[in-house]
From TrEMBL:
This is ubiquitinyl hydrolase 1. It is an enzyme of class 3 (hydrolase). Residues 8-187 form the Josephin domain. Residues 266-275 have a biased composition (Polar residues).
Length: 354
């Protein structure tokens, strides 16, 4: 009894190296190391020479011929890519032929894909093989870590999907060389528990995981920085708000102090001093709520301004009183009816009441 894992291991599968997918495609199709890059390069040079000779028939001095010589080869390049003509000539050595799968000629035959032997698929510069071994189909793409088992029911869907993705599909006609996998899988079918991954997929997932973790970390740091910035902006806004409140409080205190001073002009000196003391207490209370040394300085300036305003008020009251009373010699006056004796504050407060 054959081991199923050994059955899968019997399948020849070249993995991708550089851009040599055409070589991997041919060797996976033939199930052996039949072609090397040197072999395919030789075929490509032979095709280039044949094309050059056909162009020379139109005259080696012609503009078309000189342009052809300046152009790079269309059958190969330095990366390891080989054209469909190179692959077709390489398979012709084994008596194999390529037929375009979606051509009218082939579609008119109405052949079920599971009755074929193999397919070669090409998209842009990538080639890979789908081959039947025993009674089962396998995707031998060199970009996979190993052969991928394809069921008969899925084969037609897989080919249709490749066509929708832009792949060119070629049917292999002719007798493929015998191989070990064909003999083993012809006796016993295999079951694949886990589908192969793309080469580098694990590393890509690890890198993607690291990138996602790094992005998450960067996002976390960005959020933290944003929170810190918001905190700083909030602190600045609060500081500006406190300054506005301080200014408003100082203006309110000043208006209140002026009002109290105006009321004190018609009261006794004792009552005025009492209210001044209350005003100072109120100013001190307001200063303690708005904080610090700056409030004390504002209070001192406010008191000085109040004294000036009170003096101006008393002067106006004295002038009004003098204008209403007939002028009499005043021993305390300096002689001018428009001026007052700069005596004590108590005498100045009592004159309006005469």
């Amino acid at each position: 009894m054959f081991d199923r894992k050994l059955n899968m291991d019997s399948i020849f599968h070249e993995k991708q190296e550089g851009s040599l997918c055409a070589q991997h495609c041919l060797n996976n199709l033939l199930q052996g190391e039949y072609f090397t890059p040197v072999d395919l390069s030789s075929i490509a040079h032979q095709l280039d020479e044949e094309e050059r000779m056909r162009m020379a028939e139109g005259g080696m001095a012609s503009e078309e011929y000189r342009t052809f010589l300046q152009q790079p080869s269309g059958n190969m390049d330095d990366s390891g890519f080989f054209s469909i003509q190179v692959i077709s000539n390489a398979l012709r050595v084994w008596g194999l032929e390529l037929i375009l799968f979606n051509s009218r000629e082939y579609q008119s035959l109405m052949i079920n894909p599971i009755n074929e032997k193999a397919f070669i698929c090409n998209y842009k510069e990538h080639w890979f093989t789908i081959r039947k071994l025993g009674q089962q189909w396998f995707n031998l793409n060199s970009l996979l870590t190993g052969p991928e088992l394809i069921s008969d029911t899925y084969l037609a869907l897989f080919l249709a999907q490749l066509q929708l993705e832009g792949y060119s599909i070629f049917v292999i006609r002719g007798n493929l060389p015998e191989c070990e996998a064909e003999q083993i899988l012809g006796i016993m079918r295999v079951h694949q528990q886990q589908r192969p991954k793309l080469i580098g997929e694990d590393e890509a997932q690890t890198s993607a995981g690291r990138s996602a973790a790094q992005s998450q970390a960067d996002m976390t740091f960005a959020v933290e920085d944003e929170v810190v910035d918001e905190d700083e902006e909030l602190k600045k806004a609060l500081a500006l708000s406190r300054q506005d409140i301080d200014v408003e409080d100082e203006e309110a205190d000043l208006r209140r102090a002026i009002q109290l001073s105006m009321q004190g002009a018609v009261m006794s000196n004792k009552s005025s001093e009492s209210e001044m003391g209350n005003m100072k207490l109120a100013s001190q209370a307001a200063g303690s709520s708005t904080g610090g040394q700056r409030a004390g300085q504002n209070e001192a300036l406010t008191a000085e301004e109040l004294r000036k305003r009170r003096q101006a008020y008393f002067d106006r009251q004295q002038q009004q009183a003098q204008s209403n009373i007939p002028q009499q010699p005043d021993p305390k006056s300096s002689g001018g009816s428009g001026s007052v004796n700069p005596g004590s504050e108590e005498d100045q407060q009592q004159k309006p009441s005469q």
